[in-house]
Specification:
- The chain is of the alpha+beta class and 285 residues long.
- It has helices spanning 7-17, 93-98, 108-111, 125-140, 146-169, 182-193, 201-207, 212-223, 227-244, 249-255, 261-272, 276-284; strands at 20-25, 40-45, 51-54, 57-60, 65-69, 75-78, 86-91, 120-122.
- Strands 1-7-2-5-8 form a five-stranded antiparallel sheet, sandwiched between helices. The protein has a three-stranded antiparallel sheet with strand order 4-3-6, with no helix packed on it.
- Helix 4 runs antiparallel to helix 5 (146-169) and helix 9 crosses helix 11 (261-272).
């Protein structure tokens, strides 16, 4: 398999081939703004970084940390050090579903979102070696039988990661690895609990007894993205989920907090690449 050097190229390849794709990223690639996409993502940090915001949780990133992100979870890497090597695996949900069995759901680490689950898996040294072994095997294989070796290696890799994910989330760890400034935590919680309502920066500032400039500054400092971008990404996440379940486009517009239909169409198309109606058609089919 060709190793991509761009996250966008890897996602594009994954969606077009309805398969999986691997990208190895270095310091010279600028991290993407807060975003969502129609494939599962495994984010593995080699050198460590600063923090990653997933949905409404902000995690510190250390070498050997791995994150599992589904197609409805907005995410953004913030405060990245210049030297930040990582591996990103993009996986088409239908491909993962097709290789699962009645006894083994290989999508489990992406679909299990119980109350106290954790996106983050901190791999130990042995697990890191296993992970990199399978990645290098997939990338290096060529010649006769390379497609079989690639497929089999990925199958082993995703089975291994699901096993680690299940074991980690059954530990019921009290000291959660996600954290953020207490004020920002309250702001994020409020936004998610009121995402269908009209939320403005002025309204948030008044609600939390802060100035508009101060609330914007602390939010950007903690998460690496702006309040408006976060709200927009969360609403698009909800819209995608509703459309995938067959909800009418007009109803989706209302349920995800867009008070203007034209604005909803424009924002959705800019974020996803196609109109809500087309997305609904493709998802249902």
């Amino acid at each position: 398999m060709k190793e991509e050097n761009s996250c966008k190229a890897s996602i594009k390849n994954c969606l077009e081939q309805r398969y999986f794709s691997i990208a190895r990223l270095y310091k010279e690639e600028k991290t993407m703004d807060i975003h969502i996409h129609d494939c599962y993502e495994i984010y593995y940090s080699i050198s460590g970084g600063k923090q990653i915001l997933i949905h409404n949780k902000l995690y510190d990133i250390s070498p050997g940390d791995l994150f599992v992100i589904n197609q409805y979870e907005s995410h953004h890497v913030s405060k990245v050090d210049r030297a930040h090597e990582r591996i990103v695996i993009s996986i088409h949900p239908e491909f993962l579903k097709s290789i699962s069995s009645d006894k083994t759901d290989l999508s489990y680490c992406f679909t299990n979102r119980s109350e106290n689950f954790n996106h983050k898996i901190s791999l130990n040294k042995e697990q890191q070696q296993h992970f990199l072994y399978f990645i290098n095997k997939i990338i290096a294989t060529n010649g006769y039988g390379s497609d079989i070796i690639e497929y089999a290696s990925f199958l082993e890799l995703i089975t291994l990661l699901n096993g680690i994910y299940i074991a980690n989330n059954n530990l019921h760890i009290d000291d959660h690895s996600y954290k953020y400034n207490q004020q920002v935590q309250e702001i994020i919680t409020y936004i998610n609990e009121n995402i269908t309502e009209l939320i403005t920066i002025d309204y948030l500032a008044n609600h939390f007894y802060l100035s508009p400039s101060y609330i914007c500054r602390i939010f950007k400092s903690a998460t690496g993205t702006t309040i408006n971008k976060y709200i927009s990404a969360r609403r698009i996440t909800i819209a995608k989920s509703l459309l995938a379940n067959g909800t009418n486009v007009n109803e989706v517009c209302e349920k995800c907090g867009f008070n203007d239909y034209t604005n909803f169409l424009k924002t959705f198309k800019n974020a996803v690449g196609i109109s809500p109606k087309k997305y609904s058609t493709f998802s249902i089919s």
